[in-house]
C-alpha cells in the first residue's frame, strides 16, 4: 500500500523515482480504507531532506499511511521558506484537537544547548505531554530522543570528548522483541552527535528497557517504555547514503578539520564512495514499529483513544 502525502510535496517526486508507491491526497480520499495517521514534528532546519528520509521508510509497508507535518511556532526555521511551511505544514494549535496512531519527533541541531535554553523547548515539552493522551505510539529520534528521555524521565545528556560520528556496530539486548524482529545479531547504524545519555541513568528507571546498544562509543541505541509505547532512538537509521559525507564535506570546507566518520569510507578514504551498511535495519525498524506498535494495537476509532483527555 502507498504512503499518502500532501499534493505537490517535493519529496513525493523523489520517492516516486525510487519506485516507492506514493499516493496524493485526492486519490487516497477515494479509497475506503482507514489509513494510519502519523504526525511528524520536524525540527530539522531543511525540512524536505528529513521528510524524504522518513517518508521513504514509512512508505515501505503494506499499510496505507497518512502523514501530517508540524513545525514549532515559537521558532520559525530560517532554512525553509515560509510559503513551503504554509503549504505543507501546520502548527501544534492546528492539530491539538486530533488523535494519531503514531508520532515521530525528529532530531534538531541544538544539542550543545541545555534543553531549557532551546527557543522552542516549552512548546516541544507541551507537545510531548499532549502525545501521552493523543498518540498511541511515539518515536523519538536523536535530539528528539534526548528531549523525550529528559522530559518524561529526567534523564540528562552529557557532552562527549569526541563527536560520535560514523556507522557503529550494535547488538540486540533482548530476545523476541517485536520491534527488532528480523534484525541480525549484529547490525550497523549511523550516529552524528556531540552528546549522550549514560547507560546507568537509563537503567535506574524501571519503566525503561534498553533494546539495542553499541559496545563502542555509540552506547544505548534503542530505549523503550513498552507499556507507554514510547521509543527513543539515539542514532539515524533513516540517513541517506551520503548524509554523513555531506556533513563531513561541509565542515572540511569550513576549515573545521572534522574527524573522518568511522566505518563509513573504504579504508577511511573520503575520496571513495561510502559503504551503506544500515539500509535493511532502517526498513525493518520503521516497518516493525508501524506494524506491531501502531497498526496491530491502536483502536480502529481514534476517538476512543484516551477519551478523558483535557485537550
TrEMBL record:
Keyword check for Metal-binding, yes or no: no
Query: Which annotated residues bind substrate?
Result: 163, 192, 250
Active-site residues?
Answer: 142, 236, 238
Name the Enzyme Commission number(s) assigned to this protein: 2.3.1.31
Keyword annotations of the record: Acyltransferase, Amino-acid biosynthesis, Cytoplasm, Methionine biosynthesis, Transferase
Any one biological process term the GO annotation gives:
L-methionine biosynthetic process from homoserine via O-succinyl-L-homoserine and cystathionine
Record's keyword annotation contains Oxidoreductase = no
Q: Which InterPro entries match?
A: Class_I_gatase-like, HST_MetA, MetA_family
Which domain of life does the protein's organism represent? Bacteria
Site positions (Important for acyl-CoA specificity): 111
Pfam family for this entry, one:
HTS
Q: In which pathway does it act?
A: Amino-acid biosynthesis; L-methionine biosynthesis via de novo pathway; O-acetyl-L-homoserine from L-homoserine: step 1/1
Pull one GO CC term from this UniProt entry: cytoplasm
Q: What is its main location?
A: cytoplasm
Q: Please state what class of enzyme this protein is.
A: transferase
* Listed CDD domains: GATase1_HTS
Query: GO MF terms on file?
Result: homoserine O-acetyltransferase activity; homoserine O-succinyltransferase activity
Catalysed transformations (reactions): L-homoserine + acetyl-CoA = O-acetyl-L-homoserine + CoA
List the subcellular locations: Cytoplasm
Q: Report the sequence similarity comment from the record.
A: Belongs to the MetA family.
What does this protein do, in the record's words? Transfers an acetyl group from acetyl-CoA to L-homoserine, forming acetyl-L-homoserine.
What NCBIfam families does the record point to? metA
Q: What is this protein called?
A: Homoserine O-acetyltransferase
Supply the source organism for this entry: Selenomonas ruminis
Q: Which gene encodes it?
A: metA
Amino acid at each position: 500500500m502507498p504512503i499518502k502525502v500532501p499534493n505537490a510535496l517535493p519529496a513525493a517526486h523523489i520517492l516516486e523515482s525510487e519506485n516507492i508507491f506514493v499516493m496524493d491526497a485526492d486519490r487516497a480520499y477515494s479509497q475506503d480504507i482507514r489509513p494510519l495517521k502519523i504526525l511528524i514534528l520536524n525540527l530539522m532546519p531543511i525540512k524536505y531532506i528529513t521528510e524524504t528520509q522518513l517518508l521513504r521508510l514509512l512508505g515501505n509497508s503494506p499499510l496505507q499511511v497518512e502523514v501530517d507535518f508540524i513545525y514549532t511556532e515559537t521558532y520559525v526555521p530560517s532554512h525553509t521558506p515560509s510559503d513551503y511551511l504554509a503549504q505543507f505544514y501546520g502548527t501544534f494549535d492546528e492539530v491539538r484537537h486530533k488523535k494519531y496512531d503514531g508520532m515521530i519527533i525528529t532530531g534538531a541541531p541544538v544539542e550543545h544547548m541545555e534543553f531549557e535554553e532551546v527557543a522552542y523547548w516549552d512548546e516541544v515539552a507541551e507537545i510531548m505531554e499532549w502525545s501521552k493522551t493523543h498518540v498511541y505510539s511515539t518515536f523519538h529520534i536523536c535530539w528528539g530522543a534526548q528531549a523525550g528521555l529528559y522530559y518524561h524521565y529526567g534523564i540528562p545528556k552529557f557532552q562527549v570528548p569526541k563527536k560520535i560520528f560514523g556507522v557503529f556496530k550494535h547488538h540486540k539486548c533482548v530476545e523476541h522483541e517485536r520491534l527488532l524482529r528480523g534484525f541480525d545479531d549484529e547490525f550497523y547504524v549511523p550516529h552524528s552527535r556531540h552528546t549522550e545519555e549514560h547507560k546507568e541513568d537509563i537503567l535506574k528507571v524501571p519503566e525503561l528497557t534498553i533494546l539495542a546498544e553499541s559496545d563502542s562509543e555509540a552506547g544505548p541505541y534503542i530505549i523503550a517504555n513498552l507499556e507507554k509505547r514510547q521509543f527513543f532512538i539515539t542514532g539515524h537509521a533513516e540517513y541517506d547514503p551520503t548524509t554523513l559525507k555531506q556533513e563531513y564535506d561541509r565542515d572540511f570546507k569550513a576549515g573545521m578539520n572534522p574527524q573522518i566518520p568511522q566505518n563509513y569510507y573504504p579504508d577511511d578514504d573520503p575520496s571513495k564512495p561510502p559503504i551503506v551498511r544500515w539500509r535493511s535495519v532502517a526498513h525493518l525498524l520503521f516497518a516493525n514499529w508501524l506494524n506491531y506498535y501502531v497498526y496491530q494495537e491502536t483502536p480502529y476509532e481514534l476517538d476512543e483513544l484516551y477519551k478523558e483527555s483535557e485537550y
